[in-house]
Amino acid sequence: MSHESASLGIAFGYHDSSVAFVGSKNEIWAEHEERFSRIKFDASFPERALDWLNSLRLIDDVQSVYFYEDPDEKRKRIFSQILRNRIDSPRLLFEVLTKARMTNRTNFESYILNYLLTSYERNLSKVHFIAHHLSHASSTFYSSPFTDAAILVMDGVGERASTSIWKGNVNQILPIEQVNFPNSIGLFYAAFSVFCGFKVNSGEYKFMGLAPYGKPVFKEMIKREYLNYSNDGLYLVQAKKLGLNNFSGFEFSHLEKNFGQTRREPSAPITQFHADLASSVQSCLNELVVGLSRRAILMAGSRNLAVAGGVALNCVANQYVVKELGETNVHFFSASGDAGGSIGAAALGFVEQNALLLKKEPFRIDIKGSKLGRRFSLEFCKDVLNENNIPFSEFPKSDTSKTIASFIARGACVGIFEGRSEFGPRALGNRSIIANPLIDKGQIHINQKIKFRESFRPFAPVVMSEHANRFFEIETESPFMLRTVPVLGFEKVSMRSENHPGTDKEISISDRLESIKSPLPSVTHLDGSARVQTMGPEDSSFMRKVLEEFYAITKCPVLVNTSFNVRGEPIVGTPFEALNCFASTGLDFLYLEGLLIAKDSLSKEILSRFTANLNED
Fold this sequence. Notes:
The protein is an alpha/beta fold. About 35% of the residues lie in helices and about 20% in strands.
């Protein structure tokens, strides 16, 4: 198949702008625009990411462009919302109408094609618009190991769909069932997250992390008032009560009346009430997602399930699905959010363009551990360090990994910048901060001294896959941190004090962490779970070598792995950004493409040049 046509996938306009290239011989590249612009969840046209693809000479090979959703269908939904919902503010009405008028295929197509022509002299004739949920379905099916599968997509809203079920067979994806906006479980979850003071499209991770600090005392009220569902996956979100159809945002008056609490301001303390509400909402989501998974399997007539969409990033609910269907029968796409739509669109485009060449041979993307983005040469990194007068050491990788492992065993935190960057929300070893999982309250230390974020937010473990089932209740690979599993040896112990459920007393993170005993305290959440990443012996990364050396020293094949960034900032994208994060935080060492920098080797004058770019997360 030497004459396969390459395709380009583009996603932008709402949030998580990205580009993806799929070419012959399973060549795939993908990047987030935010990693270039440094604007978290950047929605703008991905011109910097496209420039990067062009620098690799990939734009020259593109035959067709595939956009991750259909603007015409989205515009129809917006107009129908306007007709159904009165907008009292003339200014808001003008803004909504203007945006709706501009949201159409003609505008998007002309902008994309003109940019490609003027910037890269690529004169393409057409942009193919793929339905939003079909892009999600494509991303997970074509990255799965399955020849046939039920496909489940769950998110806030695409054009109209909020949940959809598909049937994937060889190289074909067929629709089965669709649930439309505003009946959206993604927006249901987001509404409660925002009510508890977190930001939409990012705070849902915090809301999920807060849930184990509470109890599901409000679950029945939520099921009665806001989310009705059955075991077979049928559901109805009470959208009007939550304001899901409003252009001005969520509506909290019903929640405030029912729960006797006003919406939490982001700077206000997190109380037991917020933790209990998070626990209740998460419990509802767990049950509903399992019901939808059963429904998808039944309707598609397959034993396998491939999942995508923003809700598929909820690793707690994902584990319930795995428990229901079995570890080998479920695939979660590593970049299930909207950014992953560019890969789905590009993959679908590749299949369409090369149908005759592919014939009945299953096309599947090798997503290479989701490490699909930029990389930098050793010489480039040396230049960055020399320009900033940063002293560094250069040793063989084996010597450096042994040295780093010994420092981590003594409590050091290390930033790793190596190889191609990860695509998706998780750092998986190439843009990571790693630390010792055996340290009590290590979660609090890393959050306060390095990440500069809330102390309750948990960290994930990375483990040598051949030893994973000795420490976690897991039997198969989990390379993308997309599900939680029980930590073996975990137990609850008595607390000094425990808040009464539903009260407005501030929760004590330190006290709560003292209520658990775990062989891996820095990565064990209050419910005894951990969001595991496995790393196999075939992995040649520096992270894997450090794991092996750490295991040799401590007999523990596990490390803390969190993304290389600070609060409110995208994962570091360049060697200078890695250096800046290292110099302006409590990190002790930086591994930069084979070069080792120690914090204590940097003078106060050098350190004073760097500043942590803290933003609202």
